[in-house]
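User: Can you help me understand a structure? I only have the sequence.
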Amino acid sequence: MSTVPHPAIRLIVALLAGLGLSGVLPVSWAELMNGGACPHLGPLPACHLVSAAYACVLLTVLHPKLWKPLVFFAGWLPVFMLAAFGSSLELAGRETCPRTAGGVPKCYFSLALAIAVFVPVLIHILRVRRRSNGG
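Assistant: Let's start by predicting it. Here is the structure, written out as tokens:
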């Protein structure tokens, strides 16, 4: 199932991952410069993990030789899990995530973006599976 996704799927995922990376890099930079810009998981700032994860997703779709579903999911899963966890805490009333200028928790956007990144990849995986089953 390591068939490289269609170029259109790769482009969509690359644009979405690039959007995610462009949103998290300023937070990571602020964390490096001043601290306190994002929550920590132990000693690691969550925004640095998300930056690395989005970069991993971006690399897997930009470079066809790097495309492996396992590599994609190694990048995507931390983004999704952190965004889902942060959003859950926010909905439970615990201010956890960095906020936009308008006060909206950024993890809501990250969760929506993670889902949007997953959908085209899921479509690709289902098509490959259907083809391999003779459908």
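Now, to help you interpret it: The two ends are 15 Å apart (CA to CA). Residues 7-132 form one domain. Let me know which part you'd like to focus on.
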